[in-house]
What does this fold into?
Amino acid sequence: MLMVFVMPKFKIMQKLVDGLNGVSREHLTGLRVVRAYNAEEYQENKFGAANDKITKTQLFTGRMMALMSPVMMLIMNGVSLGIYWLGAALVNKEVVDLSTIMQFMMLASQIIMSFMMVMMMFVLLPRAQVAATRINAVLDTKPSITDPESDAPRTETGTVEFKNVTFAYPDSDLPVLKNISFKAEKGQTVAFIGSTGSGKSTLINLVPRFFDVTEGQVLIDGADVREIKQSTLRSIIGYVPQKGVLFTGTVKENIAFGKPDLSDEEVIAAAKVAEADEFVREMEQGYNSEISQGGKNVSGGQKQRLSIARAVAVKPEIFIFDDSFSALDYKTDKKVRENLKAASEGATKLIVAQRIGTIMDADCIVVLDSGEAVGIGTHKQLLQTCPVYREIALSQLSEEELGL
Ligand SMILES: Nc1ncnc2c1ncn2[C@@H]1O[C@H](COP(=O)(O)OP(=O)(O)O)[C@@H](O)[C@H]1O
Ligand SMILES: [Mg+2]
It folds into this structure.
C-alpha cells in the first residue's frame, strides 16, 4: 500500500522542490528589479504558492512514514502476545511443552524482524528510485555536438562561409534562420545588422558550433565545422559574447583565460587593444585585482572591454563580436575598433552591431530580417538597394551624414 500511495508522491515532490528553488533563485537574482517595482508581495505570493504545494505533499508523505513504525510495532507485539496466549492454553491442555512454545516464539520474532527490515527497505526504496531516475536521466543524455574522429583538412585560412544555412532551435520547428549564404575572406570584416530577434546571435553562434545547422553547411577555412574537432575549431576563434561574462579570479587570469601561460606583457597588450588598460591600472591592485563572482565589481562597459581583451589575447584567426560594442560609449567603441584593426591585421572579423557607425566601413554587411538575409553588400550599395538597411540607417543618422 505504501508503495502504491507514497511512491508517486515522492516523484511529484522532486518537481515541486525544483519549482521552489526556481522561484527563490529568480527572486534573488532579480532582487533590485523586484524592489524597484514594489513587487515583493507578488513574488512572495509566487513563493507562497510553490511552498504550499510542497508543504502539503511533504506532510502527506511524512505522515504516512510516521505511521509506519507504530503500526509495525503494534503488529509485532500483537503477534508475540497471540503466541503466548495460544501457547499458554496449549501448555495447559498438555498438547505441547513449554520449550516448544519458546522455540516457536524465537523463530517467529526472527521472521517478524526480517519483515521489519524489508519494510525499511520499502520506505527507502521510493526515494532512492526517484533520485536514481533523475541521476540517470542526466548521465544518459548524449551531447548532440560530437567530435569527428580526426580533423578534416583545412584548405583555406581565415575564411568563414555559410552555404544555404537553415536553422531551427532543437525544441521548435520554426526556422530562426532561412537559407543564409555569404563568405568572409581572410582579413575581411563582415557585419550583421537587423532588429532584435532577427537571428543575429543565432547565426553567429553557429560558427563556434554551439549548435549544429538544420540544413546547409558552415565552413571554416574550407572545412565543415562538423568535421573539425571542437577544440581545434574553438582555438582559432576569439568569441566575445553579447553580455560580458567574467569569472572569479584576478583581472589577469580573466584576460589570459584562453591561454593561461600568457606573459604579463601580452596580457597588458591585449588590455590596451580593448581600451581596458587605463581603468585596470586605476583599480587598487591593477592586473592582480580580484573580480568578484559574475563580475559584479566592474561596470557593464568594463566587463565588455575585458571580454574583448580576453578574445584578443588568444590571437585568433577569426573574431566574433556579438553586439560587443553596445555597452561602450561612441568614442571608446571607435577607439577599440581602430586598435583592433591595427593589432589583429589579417584576422577575419564577424561583427554584430546595432549602430550603423560601428559597421559602416565593413567589407560586407548582411542585413537580417526575421531570419532572412534581405540584403548583402557594402554600406553604399545597401543604402541604394536595401529598404530595411536604409530605414535602420536613417533612424540613426541624417541624410547629410549618410551622404544621400
Ligand atoms: N535557445 C533558444 N531556443 C529557442 N528559440 C530561441 C533561442 N534563442 C533565441 N531564440 C529565438 O530565435 C530568434 C532569434 O534570436 P537571436 O538570434 O537572439 O536574435 P538577435 O540576436 O538578432 O536579437 C528569436 O525569435 C528568439 O525567440
Ligand atoms: Mg543577439
Q: What stands out?
A: The chain is about 55% helix and 15% strand. The chain has two domains: 2-139, 160-402.
